[in-house]
Amino acid sequence: MPEPVKKTVSAFAKKPKTQEAEEGSSVLFEAETEKPDAKVKWQCNSKDIATGAKYVMTAAGNKHSLSIKAITKEDANVYAVIAGGSKVKFDLKVVSKPGPVQAPADAPGKSDVEPEKAPADPGPAPPSDPAPPTDPAPPAAAPTGEQPVVPAQDAPPAEDAQPPDTRQDLTGLFTEKPTSGNVTVGENITFVAKVCAESLLKKPTIKWFKGKWMDLASKSGKHLQLKETYDRNTKVYTFEMQIIAAKANFTGAYRCEVASRDKFDSCNFDLAVHEACATEGFDIRTAFRRTGADGKEDSGELDFSTLLKKRDSFLKSSNRAVQVNAEPDSDVWNILCSAPSSEYEKIAFENGITDLRGMLKRLKKMKKKEEKKSAAFTKKLDPAYQVKKGHKIKLAIEVANPDVEVKWLKNGVDLLPTGSKYIFESVGNMRYLTINHCSLADDAAYSCVVGEEKCTTELFVQEPPVTIVKNLEDQMVMNGERVELMCEVSEEGANVRWEKDGVELTRDESFKYRFKKDGCKHVLIINEAMKEDCGHYKVKTNGGESMAEILVQEKDLEVYQSIADLTVKAKDQAVFKCEVSDEKVRGTWYKNGVEVKPDARVNITHIGRNHKLTIDDVKPEDEGDYTFVPDGHAFNLSAKLNFLDVKIDFVPRQDPPKIHLDCMGRTSDSTIVVVAGNKLRLDVPITGDPAPTVIWTKGGKASSVKADGEETEGPESSWTLKHGEVVTEGDSRVHVETTKGHCIFTIEGAERQDEGLYSVVVRNPAGEDTADINVKVVDVPDPPQTPRVLSVGEDSCVVQWDPPLFDGGQPIIGYVLERKKKKSYRWMRLNFDPYTDTTFEAKRMIEGMEYEMRVYAVNGIGMSRHSPASQPFVPVAPTSEPIGLCVDDISDTTISLKWRPPERIGSVELKGYGVEYCKEGTDEWIPAIQGLTDRTSLMIRDLTTGDKLQFRVRAFNMAGPSAASTLAQPVTIREIMQRPRIMIPRNLRQTFVKTVGETVNLMIKFQGKPRPKVIWSKDGEPLSPTFASVRNSEVDTILFIRKTERTHSGKYDLQVQIENVEDKASITLQVVDLPGAPEALKITDVWGFNVALEWKPPKDNGNCEISGYTIQKADKKTMEWFTVYEQYRRTNCVASDLIMGNEYVFRAFAINQVGLSLEPCNTTDSAYIQKTAMEYKPPSYKDHDFSQAPKFTHPLVNRSIIAGYSTTLSCSVRGSPKPKVTWFKNKMDISNEAKYRMLCRQGVLTLEIRKPCTFDGGVYMCRAVNDSGEDIVECKLEVRSQVPKEENKKED
């Protein structure tokens, strides 16, 4: 009889019933819900039904119906209707259409059940008047021995007693849920669950439970196997729970839960295990047996336990020949409750109960549950409910009196209806409390009170995990800048944890890091970022984490004002001045490459951002190129100082022009290099009288005859100067000017097209001169070619690129690389010093994140523009090698291998496994199959018999193959007649315990053909023959130890092997001995007739648990020992009822499963029980508190005095203890001033001011302080100046 379950509140007012219909007809099932807006779902064999040609579902208010058209035999199934937490099951029985009735003799199949004949005339009926035909029973309803009896048509449907589902907003991860099933004892059954992983970021995890809490993952073994497969095409995970050789106690409710990060789903299903049917030839007498060992028929006691196990199936088969209408079974549990315990076995035998032990346990629980039935409540609250934060929950009770008033309490306080938070409902006998928008404050104990009766429950509010909505972003900042890392979480006020490189960040005294909360936003602020702040920063919540990287780069120095060329006359002052962006940057001045040192004429100053070089009394030797180089920065500022010498030269009037250049431009040394964008300034010294005309030409010589005798090709440009004025000018960027003795050619912002040969011609009436100057313009290089990612690792990648097409006229120094996440906009620099090679390994990346790379080229001039971004790539490492590679089966031409997935797979999924083999003595690995396999097992066919082969398996993912997992030794391709198998006796499956000195003789049988190889080992090490003796035969092995010692304890492993096929078993041997004596037994306290003892456990427990201690006492006079405690488990005790005036000593023994310790532990001192005496205790009185806070009884009085005459200020104060008095003038302490004298006599305070002047006037204050408080009094003192005597006389 099933156990009674709690009656739940049904959502149905009218339930559909089981119906019977003929083939080809239609049937209509109707249901009516309590609420009109309830959602109803129809199912067939636990699968949802959709409206179509076969099924028609209608809903009108609270009435719902299901119509099934054109019924066939396949429609005879179990149907169900679900509304809320209620589920009602019902059956549809399909019968064939009635046909012509044949004579009973011509019936093709005769039923085993014969109806009882009526007591009418037994004579045969005349043939002319045949008996009227009777409708035979439908085949589906005929109760046979092999078919269950179908319930009557009007039988009420069975409603699943499922509690309301308090789990809200399930994400529906299941694409196929496991369904309930039935199985016969000894047979197998498999439950299947499928999950679609297309929208999941992480592989789902699944758990199987029996009941509420029993996790079946730890029960895997002989009767339970859990499997998992993945289909890469459909991206569906299939999870299987297979129950092998089911037993009767497997019956019950099961649950399957699947989770993936913040998503969760679960479903419930049932398993029913039925007893196997007995054979037809069952003889009840064979079920009885005797328990005697001699095998005689009349020896031993009668044991009919075998009969009890087959009673049910025997009755089913034996009832075939009896009448169908049997009397209803009586309630066996009522009979057991009222019967004496001596009759239990007889009652169980009569009613077919096979599990006597389970019957007694259940009967014991039933007696405990028998309690007084509540008069006020028909249904009480459950012990506990659970709801997610923000959701609502409905508590329901059922009262006996529909008119009674109920009162709801929360933590013992009355609940009042407040808005929409708490809603009270009363429907008939039902009373409901609805709590909307549950928060953590609603996590409390709730009670419902009816009169003097009360029922209580606990509500647990589950707070959802806090997830990160907006992730952190990588940042690259300059040194000294402010950094803000911001993330956004799913809930306001949530706590987060910040980490840098795995170390938690906290607020320190230097206020380096500041943490800010703004609703759902959390910000980490670094005020001034330094180089040591580079690293990976991570923010964690209880539901996720996010990581970003910060790179700190040195700030580039900007030039606000550069130095300019100067032309200075003799004795004048020359000042070079520049302004840069950083006030802290210092620099060095150079003249013609030599550092300038300050002296009497040269002054160097640095004020803020301005740097200045001043030269007084300029001399001709001061002329040259001056350069300012900032410290720590790779650039400089240059200008030229021209000395203007004012003097009169007496030269001939007709002096032919002359160009004074060191080199005339016909060698490489004459090439002038200028950086693109900078100023090109050609200063050519010339002489000639009268002043010559200067002509500048680009693209060819100015003279009519070329150097090589041929005309130059290409465009030419010319610029002419006459008497210092520009006659012709070809470009607005070009400036030509002349001074006495110099001709200057300037191009502002030189470009690449300005590169070439420049010629200068000077003419006057006395002649002409020509010079050529070669100008080379250098620039930053072109961007490199698009980078290519050659390979990726777990947190790194190798990238390669081609050099730029144009190097800018200068050799390439190196390259600078940057990377960024695919979905981010921030590029992070990977190197600050130029990298010379064109292949770079980038590290410190996040596995599974998509990245892009780009490259800059650097030459002596600067950095190019960035290259195009590379193709996106994902850093991922190869998996670890597959584990557990072994031979599953082998024949003459095939071999089956199996293995387990790698321990570390990484963030990307596996592509599959590659299996290879090679012959012994060769290094050539041959693929066993074309391509890869998704399974963790493989059968390799078409092998040569007798070959000795070695096999290996590698796992493949996006990064390539993993390390190989190889068999321990080569395998000979030869069929094994019988696989090795070890048969461990039942008593050796648990720890085998022996006492020191006993003999161990273990015989373990095994099987296998050809004869297997037997290997014994202990704790992973081979078993030594001197340690234990081993004898092997073809069918068994014996482990023999003549005299056990403590060192024989441990785990013994037995391995039976044929080629690479093996079987293993383990035996745990525990050798125990008597324990040692307890330690440090001492007397901790003696009072009255009691002594407190304390001791420590023994160091040697005898290799087993200490079960207790024996404590004994002895009078010191007689030294006879008496036991105080026996099997005492604690390490401290109190010996009581000791005799007054005696002196006692104590000892303790340790006890384990072997026995008492050989030696006791004695106390070093004794305990004397003193005689009690009367002591006089004088009465105690509470001292009076005389303390009193200071109080001024006479205040200070405002006074006006004349300067020069001493005066006093007086007041009086009281207080206990005596207060400390301090005097103040204008709130300044004057206790240490010599001009004032403070007196205190009997509480009268006096301040004496000696010969005050007008400056002594002001507000004087006196403060009295003690432990009870303080008081203040103040006054104003006015000091008037004296009137001279002469003025008094004049007035008189």
Automatic annotation (TrEMBL):
Instruction: Name the UniProt key words of this record, in alphabetical order.
Output: Actin-binding, Cell adhesion, Coiled coil, Immunoglobulin domain, Muscle protein, Phosphoprotein, Repeat, Thick filament
Residue segments, region Disordered: 1-26, 99-179
Q: Where is the composition biased (Pro residues)?
A: 121-141
Q: Determine if Coiled coil is one of this entry's keywords.
A: yes
List, in alphabetical order, the Gene Ontology terms for molecular function in this entry. actin binding; myosin heavy chain binding
InterPro entries assigned to the protein according to its UniProt record, in alphabetical order? FN3_dom, FN3_sf, Ig-like_dom, Ig-like_dom_sf, Ig-like_fold, Ig_I-set, Ig_sub, Ig_sub2
Give every Ig-like domain span: 375-450, 464-603, 657-774, 980-1068, 1190-1278
Where is composition skewed (Low complexity) in this entry?
142-165
Highest taxon listed in the record's lineage: Eukaryota
Q: Where is the composition biased (Basic and acidic residues)?
A: 109-119
The record's section on Pfam families has:
fn3, I-set, THB
Please provide, in alphabetical order, the Gene Ontology terms of the cellular component aspect for this entry. M band; myosin filament
GO terms for biological process, alphabetical:
cell adhesion; sarcomere organization; ventricular cardiac muscle tissue morphogenesis
Coiled coil spans: 353-380
Q: Which intervals hold domain Fibronectin type-III?
A: 783-882, 883-976, 1077-1172
Q: What PANTHER family would the database entry show?
A: MYOSIN-BINDING PROTEIN C, CARDIAC-TYPE, TITIN
Family statement drawn from the similarity comment of this UniProt entry: Belongs to the immunoglobulin superfamily. MyBP family.
Query: How is this protein named in the record?
Result: Myosin-binding protein C, cardiac-type
Whichever gene encodes this chain, its name is mybpc3
